[in-house]
Amino acid sequence: MLNNKGFTLVELLAVLAILVTILLITIPSVTSTIDRTKNKELESKKELIKTSAELYISNNKNFLTTVNICYIPISELTQTNMIKETNIINPFTNQTITGCVVLNQSENQYTFEDECDTTITKCLTS
């Protein structure tokens, strides 16, 4: 009489196929959740940068230029301790976020830009 202990090869392959199917379903879901979280984190950091720029302008109104549209480089915000470099790390690249905040003075609107247009005047004069 045979004593069958253990699993057959077919049973093991069936379990393996089920596990692979579960992984194929869950990995894209987890990946998209991570990407959405990183996007939200990046947007939050951009809002932090804009808020820091508003505070920076508010603290330095006496030096504000008279042009309607001007920019504040992020480097200026970090050099004046309005924001810490450790707070502005891009979650996708793990690099410090660069760029600037553009101020439209007539509308009192602050906009984050990934690239600074240096043809625009800086907001503060020395």
Report on this model:
By secondary structure, the chain is of the alpha+beta class. The chain contains two helices and four strands, in the order αβαβββ. A four-stranded mixed sheet has the order 3-2-1-4. The longest helix has 51 residues. The radius of gyration is 26 Å and the shape is rod-shaped. It starts with 8 loop residues before the first helix and ends with a strand.
Whole-angstrom Rg: 26 Å
Determine the N-to-C terminus distance: 97 Å
Relative helix content: 40-55%
Segments where pLDDT lies below 50 for 5+ residues? none
Order of helices and strands: HEHEEE
Q: Walk across the major sheet and give the strand order.
A: 3-2-1-4
Q: How much of the residues is beta strand, in percent?
A: 5-15%
Overall 3D form: rod-shaped
- Strand tally: 4
Average pLDDT score: 90
Largest sheet: 4 strands, mixed
Regarding quaternary structure, how should these chains be classified?
single chain
Structural class: alpha+beta
Number of helices: 2
